[in-house]
Amino acid sequence: MPATKTAPAAARRKGEAPPRPDRQQAILLAAEKLFAQRGYHAVTIRQIAEEAGVPLALVAYYYGPKQDLFHAVFAHWSQTIDERLQALEVASRDPADPLTLTRIVEAFVQPVIRMRSSPEGQYYAQLVGRELAYNSEEADRVLREFFDPMAHRFIDALHHALPQGSRADVAWGYQFALGALLHHLVDDRIERLSHDLNKASDPAAAERLVRFIVGGLRAAMPISAQKSQPTPPRRRQA
């Protein structure tokens, strides 16, 4: 969370109560919720202030213009990126292990799905899936600062686990995997399409998504590279 800004004492009206840290948090949570539900451009600072139950001027006092508040929401959740990178480090220690690819994908998927399934993380997960999938100045700033460095780490680890393809091949695979993950975060149609047998927030969906992405990554490698891989010997029939 960004550090609290200090307003000059002379700028405060006589008798005005100083801002409280709980108000700062309320503003951040309100912005996260409204950005996730309506989209960045459909939300005004006034609506955020009303949702947070604070005076309009207090939003700018703490966070400045709307684009900086948008950025602050992602800064607040940056520990989720650290969690994924820590899991990646453990998962990629032995690229030759047949399970390494699955473990890397688990590090990519599972922390986000857990967040999506939790009451405190559901709005942020929806915000990531909704806003970062579109080209905009605000999203590009967030992607470059928070998500691109993580993406490069994952692509490098995946390349070590999939040496039959080039890093460029693996980058395509990462892009497709990201699309599957982001769509899962924001789309609730699975409930309707499954006749309410499946729930969008079901954390058990993570295992299915991991298997789907692992299979897709392997299939996305060049055809010639797949054919060149040794085929396990067939067992003789008795």
CATH homologous superfamily assignment of the largest domain: Tetracycline Repressor, domain 2
Radius of gyration: 22 Å
Quaternary state reads single chain
Structural class, by secondary structure, is mainly alpha
**CA-based shape:** globular
Mean of all residue-level pLDDT scores:
87
Structural domains: how many:
2
Question: Concise description?
Answer:
The protein is an all-alpha fold and 238 residues long.
Structure explained in plain terms:
By secondary structure, the protein is mostly helical. The chain has 2 domains: 19-66, Arc Repressor Mutant, subunit A (Orthogonal Bundle); 77-221, Orthogonal Bundle (Tetracycline Repressor, domain 2), CATH 1.10.357. The chain has helices at 21-38, 45-52, 56-63, 66-76, 79-91, 100-116, 122-131, 137-161, 167-186, 189-193, 205-219, 223-228. Helix 1 crosses helix 2 (45-52), helix 7 (122-131) packs across helix 9 and helix 8 (137-161) packs across helix 9.
List keywords for this structure.
238 residues; mainly alpha; Arc Repressor Mutant, subunit A; Tetracycline Repressor, domain 2; 2 domains; 66% helix; globular; disordered N terminus
SSE layout:
Layout: H1 21-38, H2 45-52, H3 56-63, H4 66-76, H5 79-91, H6 100-116, H7 122-131, H8 137-161, H9 167-186, H10 189-193, H11 205-219, H12 223-228
